[in-house]
Each structure stands twice: as C-alpha cells, then as structure tokens.
Task: structure prediction
Amino acid sequence: MAAASDPVELGASWGPARPEPLPTRFHRVHGANIRVDPSGTRATRVESFAHGVCFSHEPLAPGQVFLVEIEEKELGWCGHLRLGLTALDPARLAAVPEFSLPDLVNLGHTWVFAITRHHNRVPRNGQQAAEAAAPSRPPALLVEPYLCIEQFRIPRDRLVGRSRPGLYSHLLDQLYELNVLPPTARRSRLGVLFCPHPDGTADMHIVINGEDMGPSARGLPAAQPLYAVVDVFASTKSVRLVQLEYGLPSLQTLCRLVIQRSVVHRLAIDGLHLPKGLKDFCKYE
Result:
C-alpha cells in the first residue's frame, strides 16, 4: 500500500514507483446480519434493516477508490446505503456497532455519511457556499474518460453504473452516465477515497456514478491507516465490489470499449463472432 505521506502529481501513473493497489475485498469482521460471499466481494444483509456494517479488508491507499455497486434493494425500509472511512482497525473492535450512524461515528476517528447527492460538500476556508453547491453534470465518457479528484486521475469507465442488458440498455446507461437517477438506485456505483495533503491531513471524497461529490470531510489523519466503511442499511440489501484499473487499461478493457461503441445496444453483442467470455464481459461489465 502506498504511504499516505507520499506526494502524488495530478495524473501520475501507477507503476514501479507507485504500485497499483491490491484488489478490494470486504473484511472478515462485519455486522451480525451480513453475509460475505467466499470471494469477499459481495455483502448481503440477510435479515432486519440494521447490523449491516462492513469494512474494507485492508486500509485504502491514497487515491484508491473503494467502489460498490448496489445489487439488491428491499422494500419496506426507510433509509439507504451509508459510506465513509474509519481510522479504527476493524479487527480490534470489541463488537461491530449496530449502525454506522451514529454508533460507529461516536467511537471516534470515523467519517460516515448517508448517501445523497449534495448534502455533504464541505467548502474550503473562504469559499462561498454557492461555489460549494451541487457539482456540474459530469461530461460524457467519450469526452472525458478520466475523473480528476484533487491530485488523482481515475478512469471513469468502471465508476459509472450500468443497466441490465436489454433493448433499451443504451438509453438507460445514459441515465447512469449523466447521474440523473437517485444515487442509491439499483446498479448505481458508489465509491469513497481520500486525498492526502502536505500538512498530514486528507480530504474524503464520495463518488456517485463517476461524479465527484466534492470533499465530504476534511482534516482526516492521512498518516493513519484508513479503512472503508459500507453500511448495508435499510432499503439497500446487497452490494458487490467493483475493481478499478488505475494504470494503463488492459487489452480486454480496450476491446470491450471498442465493441460497446460499435453496437446500438448490448443485446446486439450476441450476434458478433466473438468468444463467449468476451461477449459476456462486454455485456455485463
């Protein structure tokens, strides 16, 4: 994991001097109602609406996005997914709190927010509130393939949710890409990361379908290990982790992008003379 104090230039490449982070996984310590699949990449709340707190298996590296996709919703509950960071080591908790808000936050060194679109933008000193209001609509993926957050440049392709393959998937995908759906809609992708500063502090950012919501919290201790927190709360029933490519995109990803841009909708991929594995990758990823 990269040291939090290491300076990183905007758009700096991940490479030998800055190795790519390890794949994200959920921690073995989690809420009593959570079941994590054997791969460690899917977390499901099996009953009630609470005891759904999960953590990242390892502390995050600076600029590393802990990205989840909402897989299942459950009607009848009020409230949605909660997301944030903690400097508490999950393995050292006497017990996982029932709720991330307020229980885990009250333990200290924890920053968690209920997911909404504009509630948590923290203005810098001297910045007008109007300037810190809702961010502008994100550009199309073909116009700007990278999301720049402070000193980090992150490929936007995997950050954006996608609909199920269908005749109208090409239209529905645009709703995710433009981020006009509710942020906790099924198949939305939500991520959290931190950006360190030379003074030893860090800003926490939340990303919704490829759109940076701005700093949600400032003054985090960048020198301490920071774990991601995902509270699978209330109407959010199941989430899965989405892995990002931080360096040069793989050949498989480049092939997928070319193929997806060459068809009207993803069901048309079935008619192409391609290996089934590549077809499935293009349709579902």
